[in-house]
């Protein structure tokens, strides 16, 4: 999974494209006509291909190759490639994988040069809208649309839809609405996992009274400093104001400095700007701005703090020899709700499968990636952990990492209301600019209204 600090490359891509981003459509929209190579489907009679009968529509694809372009590099690349072996067995088509650490920038360059890949894994809805704006993206075939309707929530399909046309099925996912903690420390002190936000604050008071700082945090991330604080605010808005309000805020139908946003930022401030609560292991409140996000939660290991809010991908930051499990050195719990009327909000991210060709083998590969079969093949191929999908057909038992299993259970919870990271959907001048900068200024002393006014005033006029 990619962290938000990686968005710097996509900001450059958006500047190259020169396109204005709009909010994702929620309509499931048009699809492209299914193409077929003819001939007998190679999976016919092969028991390994059960559950993939849709692929018969594309005929015999032997001798063809599908090119995939992505930001996902080794060791994840090898795990992805292993998950494609069943596709080749059942269709005859090969998959050529190309990973790049300059993906977002180079994808737009390639589109402008007329050198589009067959398939690209897009890590943000905003970038998907940019590539659709190039006029080169191809609507997903009906088989993909049907699979997404069956295996994913409506919200996920909306993020792959632009101007009423469905282009891109979800691929991987991550959950940001987590609080990391030490199970042994909680057990030793008799602390219970909080069920509500008020419970979490009461626990924070109890921990502070014991002499330990309840929270540690870090928002430093080079040029992307501030992004972890934006996640805090996004999670709070979802909990306080609800998903509809959140969507309106992301699309600037609600001003950035609206009273509801200020209420939620003040709620975050009750933790992050509270000198009784932070910054365990690092110093005072100001140290939050100078502590790297990679190091932000590490004082939990030394009992210098008790809790750290960060995404599922933070599981890779704990270092060698640290066991991430419910009975291990560290684990995570769901960031509690503030308003039961707003369901169980889940903030997260993920990738989407966009195509630039409607050749039969390309459509077949899109279809394969949108199935429950592929989700389980990918889970079994990811032997080191660190991957999850929002596909409800994913068997959680096939995920080897406890935090991956927790993430999948969170995403599959019928009460979950998923929303994509807000700043990844906003115009880059805000989402990767003023929002990051003003959250940093707010942490170091700027008041709530001034910070929000400054972000509102930075929103592009058109």
Automatic annotation (TrEMBL):
Annotated SUPFAM superfamilies: Periplasmic binding protein-like II
Region (Disordered): 27-46
Keywords: Signal, Transport
Keyword Transferase: no
Signal peptide (from-to): 1-22
Record keyword Glycosyltransferase present: no
Family as reported in the entry's similarity comment: Belongs to the bacterial solute-binding protein 1 family.
Protein's name in the database: ABC transporter substrate-binding protein
Phylogenetic lineage: Bacteria, Bacillati, Actinomycetota, Actinomycetes, Propionibacteriales
């Amino acid at each position: 999974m990619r962290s938000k600090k990686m968005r710097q490359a996509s900001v450059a891509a958006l500047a190259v494209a020169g396109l204005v981003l709009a909010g994702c459509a929620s309509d499931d929209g048009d699809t492209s006509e299914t193409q077929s190579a003819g001939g007998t489907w190679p999976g016919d009679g092969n028991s390994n291909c059960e559950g993939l009968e849709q692929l018969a529509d594309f005929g015999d694809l032997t001798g063809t190759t599908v090119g995939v372009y992505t930001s996902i590099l080794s060791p994840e690349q090898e795990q992805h490639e292993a998950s494609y072996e069943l596709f080749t067995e059942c269709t005859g088509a090969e998959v050529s994988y190309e990973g790049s650490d300059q993906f977002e920038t180079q994808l737009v360059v390639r589109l402008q040069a007329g050198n589009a890949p067959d398939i690209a894994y897009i890590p943000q809805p905003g970038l998907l809208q940019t590539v659709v704006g190039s006029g080169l993206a191809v609507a997903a075939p009906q088989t993909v649309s049907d699979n997404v309707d069956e295996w994913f929530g409506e919200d996920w399909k909306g993020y792959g839809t632009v101007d009423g046309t469905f282009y891109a099925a979800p691929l991987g996912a991550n959950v940001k609405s987590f609080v990391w903690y030490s199970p042994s420390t909680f057990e030793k002190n008799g602390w219970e996992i909080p069920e509500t936000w008020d419970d979490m604050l009461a626990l924070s008071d109890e921990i502070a009274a014991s002499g330990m700082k309840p929270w540690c945090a870090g928002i430093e991330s080079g040029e992307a400093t501030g992004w972890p604080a934006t996640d805090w605010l996004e999670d709070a808005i979802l909990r306080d104001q609800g998903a509809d309000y959140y969507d309106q805020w992301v699309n600037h139908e609600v001003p950035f400095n609206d009273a509801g946003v200020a209420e939620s930022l003040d709620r975050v401030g009750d933790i992050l700007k509270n000198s009784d609560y932070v910054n365990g292991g690092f110093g005072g409140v100001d140290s939050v701005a100078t502590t790297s996000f990679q190091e932000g939660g590490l004082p939990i290991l030394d009992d210098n703090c008790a809790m750290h809010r960060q995404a599922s991908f933070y599981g890779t930051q704990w270092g060698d020899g640290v066991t991430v499990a419910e009975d291990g050195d560290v684990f995570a719990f769901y960031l509690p709700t503030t308003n039961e009327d707003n369901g169980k909000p889940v903030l997260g991210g993920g990738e989407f499968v966009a195509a630039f060709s409607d050749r039969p083998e390309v459509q077949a590969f899109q279809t394969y990636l949108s199935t429950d079969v592929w989700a389980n093949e990918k889970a079994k191929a990811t032997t080191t952990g660190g991957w999850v999908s929002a596909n409800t057909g994913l068997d959680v038992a096939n995920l080897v990492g406890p935090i991956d299993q927790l993430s999948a259970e969170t995403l599959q919870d019928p009460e979950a209301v998923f929303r994509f990271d807000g700043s990844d959907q906003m115009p880059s001048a805000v989402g990767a600019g003023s929002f990051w900068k003003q959250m940093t200024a707010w942490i170091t002393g700027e008041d709530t209204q001034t910070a929000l006014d400054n972000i509102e005033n930075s929103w592009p006029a058109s």
